[in-house]
UniProtKB/TrEMBL annotation:
Belongs to the CAF1 family. It comes from Syncephalis pseudoplumigaleata. This is Ribonuclease CAF1. One of its GO terms (cellular component) is nucleus. One of its GO terms (biological process) is priRNA 3'-end processing.
Length: 345
């Protein structure tokens, strides 16, 4: 199911329901590039974990994710099969049309753009109708910028000491009134000077309320697709992908917060976001009883490994799980069992 900016808000309840009902999810991400021109040395088999992470991190800083595929899988006990719900999101950073949103700069790689074009990627939908997104750090800066605008909407009056005391008293009364359902508020004014102060405060409160409502609407629009990532994270459900280190780095940097330089901090952070990760590439590498056929991973049924032995080999290969707690290890066992059931084993 294709999701664009115009349909995103209407689709959110269905997406939320699909995530809430599913046993696990699968994701796949498309980027604007894979190999940064500024990367001094390409990825090498001799890279340490830190070196390899640094190179993948570099890719996430230079390029952005332009398409996000999400598929939820719900087990139908009566039919003894999984029901899949796919969602395809075109993504474009929040900038144009939203005042105060950060204006991103990103690179594109010719070979990647050519690959996308040859595989049916719609650049018009991406550039013109992609769902906006921003991470938590950008949201904080966005809110600060807009709050400063609101604070400076009306300049303060030049008041003497008595005027400042009256203004503080009047503001407290107005603030209390705004939190109640009372139709009016009575503020005793002894002269025209006091009336002017009250009028100024009311005008400022009214305009600030209007601007704050507009700010919240703009923030919701700018956050956009990150709300889906927040739903996925809150569900704490297994997430399946193939060779998804770049996918995870892109999601972390553009939809969560800035990527740390140290791989151990990234590992801890990504497990905080998604505690159960299953990478089918590592599952295949860790198990000689899995064959690659026509781009799909399948077991030879005559020699399918037992779940405990498969899990043990898989855990020893996957760096993220090495950094996880025993609770995550137990959850991984459940997630891996679900994945095996999805392959009809």
């Amino acid at each position: 199911m294709e999701v664009l900016r115009s349909s995103f808000s209407d689709m959110l309840p269905e997406i939320e329901e699909a995530i809430a009902e599913c046993e696990f999810m699968a994701l796949d991400v498309e980027f604007t590039g894979l190999n940064p021109a500024s990367l001094a040395t390409p990825r090498d088999i001799a890279d340490t974990v830190q070196e390899r992470y640094g190179k993948v991190r570099h890719q996430s800083l230079d390029f952005i994710l332009c398409q996000f595929g999400l598929c939820t899988f719900r087990w139908n006990e009566q039919r003894r099969e999984y029901e899949a719900k796919p969602f395809n999101f075109y993504l474009m950073p929040a900038s144009s049309g939203i005042r105060g949103a950060p204006d991103r700069y990103f690179q594109c790689q010719a070979s990647t753009i050519d690959f996308l074009a040859r595989n049916g990627f719609d650049f018009t939908k991406w550039l013109g109708y992609g769902v906006h997104f921003m991470n938590w750090d950008e949201e904080r800066l966005f809110r600060e910028r807009r709050e400063n605008e609101i604070a400076n909407t009306l300049p303060g009056m030049q008041l003497d000491e008595r005027g400042l005391q009256f203004e503080q008293h009047a503001r407290q009364q107005i603030d209390r009134w705004l939190t109640t359902k009372e139709p009016s508020v009575s503020i005793a004014c002894s002269n025209g000077y006091h009336y002017r102060i009250v009028y100024h405060l009311i005008q400022k409160s009214k305009r600030n309320a209007q601007k704050r409502a507009k700010m919240e609407a703009d923030v919701a629009q700018a956050i956009g697709f990150r709300r889906v990532i927040d739903m996925m994270a809150q569900s704490r459900k297994p997430i399946v992908g193939h060779h998804m280190i770049m996918d995870l780095c892109q999601v972390y940097h553009h939809l969560y917060k800035s990527l740390p330089e140290q791989v151990d901090l990234f590992a801890a952070g990504i497990l905080t976001l998604f505690p159960i990760l299953l990478d089918t590439k590592y599952i295949c590498m860790a198990n000689p009883d899995i064959e690659m056929a026509e781009g799909r991973s399948i077991f030879r049924h005559s020699s399918a490994p037992t779940l405990p032995s498969m899990l043990e080999r898989y855990v020893n290969r996957l760096y993220f799980v090495k950094s996880a707690s025993m609770t995550c290890y137990n959850l991984m066992a459940l997630a891996l069992e679900l994945f095996c059931r999805a392959l009809n084993l």
